[in-house]
Amino acid sequence: MNSARTMVLLACGALAVLAGTANAQRPGTWRCKRLLAEDGRSWREDIVVVTLLSDIVAIEPASKHEAVDRDFGDAWVIPGLIDLHTHLLLKPYDQMAWDDQVLRETTELRTLRARVHGIDTLWAGFVAVRDLGTEGAGFADVALQRAIAEGLATGPRIWASTRAIVRRGWYGPSPDDPAVPKGAQTVEGEAEIRDAVRAQAAAGAQWIKVYADYRKQKGGAAEPTFALDELAALVDEATKAGLPVAAHATTDEGIRRAVLAGARTIEHGGGASEATLRAMRERAVVLVPCLAANEAIVLQAGRKGPIVDRLNAAKAGFQRALAAGVTIGCGSDVGVFRHGDNARELELMVAYGMTPAQALASATTVAAGVLGAADLGVVRKGARCGFVVLGADPLVDIGALRQVRAVVREGDELWLRRDGR
Length: 421
Ligand SMILES: [Zn+2]
Known about the structure:
CATH architecture of the largest domain: Alpha-Beta Barrel
CATH superfamily of the largest domain: Metal-dependent hydrolases
CATH class of the largest domain: Alpha Beta
Bound molecules: zinc ion
Strand content: 15-25%
CATH topology of the largest domain: TIM Barrel
Helix content: 25-40%
């Protein structure tokens, strides 16, 4: 594959490949009326971004260029966004219940569908995702990641975690019946925990996802799954393989154990006490709150029953973490709701008290830091080519993230248009 090529996606209609762009060895020039500055809080005006192969090689005043390859006109250009918590192998629960997806659908069909989810993700301006569990679809996330890297499929850069690890008897469908397939890899005891980490690493996982707490029965309260020394063994085995750990945890004790064991991120995390939040801040553990999935589940339930309490609890948890100075990364848990609506997470972050600039940072610089990807999250010389062209100012109204006019990223030198022309 020629890594020299640049992909441009223009969002508006049906997907169609138009044509290749010019000689890939020649620098590409992209004029931006406004480009988000490195501080993430201001705009640089009348700028040309110069790219070569998949890299940004210069950021220059537009006055230096008589002509450019593409002029984005009156638009706001931001770095490509990152979602730290996706499930590309799931479709929204209001289209098909999670149990049915795990039990009644083939991995082959789910993988083909995930390819479309990847396209929808990219159109929405999200150029990279950390996919946190295939939910019964084995190692299909690694297959999709490699297909995208090989140019066989269009989608975001994927950091895969494969199957996720949970204690036996704690995860659906039918937690107590070992004969029923499960949505994650179930283990009991340290030896199986270490085996599972090694197997997932060998299959291509770049992160290990563990459920540090969960409910045993549908509708029940969450309880810690693993003992602290079991979680420590999991982190130890992952570290030996060079992999960081993401821990699903909603209860204070589950979060506390995951933090002490060495998890890098806490997913959801609404139940953390002040002491646990302090431990997160001191150890630089990042909170990924998944506000959008929480809202979606409540909406899908028709805003009825005890589930509605989840909204307030998640909001309060997020606000406590924000006040405590915990670093917060953008992860939506998309898959529970429609792929391409990832920006809902940032809208809720702002609704719950972040500034638009803080929310943008959570999906750019902060998220890139979590992934250890210094070449993502900012448009500057030396970074990878990846940016999003918006029709409105997201620092004024974060809802501007819904007005994606174009997405430019590394990859094939194809011009893809959705207007059917
Ligand atoms: Zn999730």
